[in-house]
Specification:
The chain is built from 15 helices and 14 strands. With 430 residues, it is an alpha/beta fold. Bound molecules: D-glucarate and magnesium ion.
């Protein structure tokens, strides 16, 4: 048995990094050449190190650094103490300044203090669970209740895309700006990773152009489940139109329109299953959305739902109400993918492949980046998350952060490099 003090926190390190990102297009603009992430390390008295990875934007980094300074002596086996500290830090306006009242916007639904707390808690909870599991010599999924599958399926996540960032050489993926380009991109992602379902990020071109791209994918990959996600770019009326055009072609339509009422309207009119990572992104939004039958698939994301255990709570809630659960993703590296895979391994009724941006990143901070076989990541039984930090790589990516003035992800600003008048469109755009 480990000593009772073995799981106590001796030291915490927070490392902001910048990672390269291709020019992926979305409703708001385009991914910047460099995007921030934060890596959290929690070292226990026994010398075990637990890892967490999350957003790197200033609002998160400020809170994460303030929390990190108060964690020494807490017990990784008692995340409740962590929650108290996160609450205290995030409730202190002096610590957070204007980060506490960011207006609702973006591609991940509402932004409020509760969601900030959930995100900050999640970054450390993953590291605590990783550390505690390493102390015990068990995988994280064992602490979450035990895996019910050996592999977790992910989908090919397609983006409309420029050939390269403005002023830079084309990248290896090339451009995808029409149905042929989208099909070619799908083929490249599937050839390399074996994905068995496909998601297209929409909201970039007018709905008919995106309908044409989905039809082209349907012809090129008959039988593969397809999804389209315009990030709420459409009115309810346009959502109904697209849902009717793509009936029988889509597995589900993701966030066709903004808000619970409009989503409910699209579903009621068409019967199309609707998924969301925008109109239900916190537990407080669940009752109304489920009562109005606005969503049929909730896309969980431990990074903002409040961690790995909260993800399981969400899955249980969805199960109770006959709503499916799957997983949302944002630009991320291997620590996040490991955490996503451990929690997905435990959810009993996961019937849709999870999203991941990971194939778009060509660098990582772990020594043995994951590979996808048949579109799936194998669930690790090694202690903790089963990944080890590549400290040289982490130092390189931190140096890049220190040498740069990029501190926040801003897709609209990146688009202004090409179109100086660009601003994220008012909704609905179509
Ligand atoms: O990476 O451009 C992107 C996505 O649009 C991302 O920011 C979204 O949060 O993938 C996400 C989604 O499913 O809405
Ligand atoms: Mg989405």
């Amino acid at each position: 048995m480990p000593q009772p003090t073995a799981s106590r926190v001796a030291d915490v390190r927070v490392t902001p990094i910048l990672i390269t990102d291709p020019p992926l297009l979305n409703l708001q603009g385009v991914h910047q050449p460099l995007t921030p992430r934060t890596v959290v390390e929690v070292r226990t008295a026994s010398g075990h190190v637990g890892l967490g990875e999350t957003y790197g934007d200033t609002e998160y980094l400020t809170a994460i650094e303030a929390v990190a300074a108060r964690l020494e002596g807490t017990d990784t086996a008692r995340p409740a103490d962590l929650r108290t500290i996160v609450d205290q830090v995030c409730d202190s306006a002096a610590t957070l300044g204007s980060a506490a009242d960011v207006p609702a916007s973006g591609l991940r639904g509402k932004r409020d203090l509760g969601k900030l707390k959930a995100s900050v808690f999640a970054a450390f909870e993953t590291a605590y669970l990783d550390a505690w599991a390493r102390v015990l010599g068990v995988p994280v999924h064992a602490l979450l209740g035990g895996r019910v599958r050996d592999r977790v399926d992910y989908s090919a996540y397609l983006f409309y895309k420029w050939a390269g960032h403005p002023g830079a050489e084309p990248d290896a993926w090339g451009a995808a700006l029409d149905p042929d380009g989208v099909v070619e991109q799908a083929r490249a992602l599937i050839d390399r990773n074996g994905f068995r379902s496909i998601k297209l990020k929409g909201g970039v071109f007018a709905p008919d152009a995106e309908i044409a791209a989905i039809r082209a994918l349907h012809r090129a990959f008959p039988g593969l489940p397809l999804r389209l996600d315009p990030n709420s770019a459409w009115s309810a009326e346009t959502g109904v139109y697209v849902a009717r055009e793509l009936a029988g072609v889509l597995e589900y339509l993701e966030d066709p329109t903004a808000g619970i009422d409009a989503m409910a309207e699209v579903h009621a009119a068409t019967g199309m299953p609707l998924a969301t990572n925008m109109c239900v992104t916190g537990f407080d939004e669940v009752p109304e959305a489920f009562a109005k039958r606005a969503v049929q698939v909730v896309l969980s994301d431990h990074h903002y739902w409040g961690g790995l255990r909260a993800t399981l709570d969400l899955a249980a809630l969805c199960r109770t109400h006959g709503v499916a659960v799957s997983m949302h993703s944002n630009t991320h590296l291997g620590i996040s993918l490991a955490a996503m895979t451990h929690v997905a391994a435990v959810v009993p009724d996961l019937h849709h492949a999870c999203d991941t941006h990971r194939p778009w990143q060509d660098e990582d901070v772990i020594t043995r980046p994951h590979t996808f076989h048949g579109g799936a990541v194998e669930v690790s039984d090694a202690p903790g998350l089963g990944v080890e930090l590549d400290r040289d790589r982490l130092a390189d990516l931190h140096r890049r952060w220190a040498d740069s003035d990029v501190r926040d992800r801003d897709d609209a600003a990146a688009m202004r490099a090409v179109d100086p008048d660009w601003h994220a469109p008012r909704l609905p755009r179509w």
